[in-house]
Structures are given as structure tokens and as C-alpha cells.
Amino acid sequence: MSYQKLPYTWGAKSLSEINGLTLDSTIGDTVWNTDWNLMEVRSASGWINDCAVWRKANSGQATALEVGMAVEANDDTSILGAGADEERYCGVIIRTQFNAPIPSGKTFFAAVAYMGMFPVKLFSSTNQNAQAGWFVYLDASTGNGQCLVTPTNPGVDTIGVLAENVTIATRQTVLVNVHIQT
After folding, report:
1. What are the distances in angstroms from CA 80 to CA 6, 32, 89, 131, 157?
2. 3 state SS of 150
3. Residue pLDDT, tens place only, 60-71
4. Residue 16: enclosing H or E segment and its boundaries?
5. pLDDT tens-digit profile of 108-155?
6. SS3 of 87, please?
7. Which of 128, 146, 166, 176 could form a Cys-Cys staple with 142, CB 3.0–4.6 A?
8. β 128-130/166-168 pair status
9. Which one-letter DSSP state was computed for residue 146?
């Protein structure tokens, strides 16, 4: 048996390397994302994978939409904005069209993951040492698409479980890998 190169247009690359390929790649190109351990395909909007979809995003809120924010879907499937309404929750932003936050009042596209292990913005009002396996849930008190964690299942607002241990300082936000499931 002979050795074959990886069957991807761009081989295996980290997330930052993939983001740097955006201008050099063409629609249909493939790459193995070593940070997320999955294949990504170049679409008209940017790199995408099996765990996410590109959605139109209108950041009409006071803050920009950023990677890791939990977002809600509008009736036309576009992103309504960062939020905590479990009935409208559609996933977590994993990439924006230009690999930068979507400015307030602007319309762009964002890749929204609805399953898989991706970074999520977590917030805590007190110093918290969260453990892998704790529940990650939506809560309107956090604002700006941030989530909270708890060792006990809070029920309907749960979006996934922590993939790693993390310390969240009082009134701080951290970006942490979470096993997401909508």
C-alpha cells in the first residue's frame, strides 16, 4: 500500500490558516480543519462544514455579532440577532463572512453551527470553575448572545455541554468549546 496525500484541495490547515485562504480559494475547494477536526468546503459566502449553515445576519443591535454568540432566527431564517429565546435559538456563530465581527446596523452572512463542537461565549456573574460535562444554557440576563453554565440540567434552555474545564472570572466572558445541539 502506498501513501497518498490527503484528498483535500488545500490539505490540512488550522482555522486561522483556512481563514487566510479565503481570497485564494475557489468555490468547491476543500480543506481539513485541524482545529475542528472536520472537512470544510468553500462556498460563495466562505468556508462551511456539515455542522453549520450560512445565514444572512443583520446586526441591528447595539453590539456587533461575533464568533461564539448564540443567535436567534427570524421568520425568514435570517439571524434576528444575539439572544436567548429558546424558541428562536438556531445555533452559534462560528465564522463571519469577512472573518471579523459584523458591525452594528450592517448586513452580512454568518456561519451558524447547529451541532458539533465549537467555541461559545460563556458569562458568569461570579467567579466560576466550570467542569467538562456541565450544561450550557441560554439566559436572557446575560445579553449579547452569551450563555451560562451549570452542573445540573436547566431543561429547555440547554444548548449543549462543556467540552473542557474552564474558569470564568466574575462578570467576564470567555470563548470555550461546547458540544452544541439545537
Report:
1. 39, 31, 10, 31, 18
2. strand
3. 555 678 899 998
4. helix 15-21
5. 888 999 999 999 999 999 999 999 999 999 987 776 788 999 999 888
6. coil
7. 146
8. antiparallel
9. -
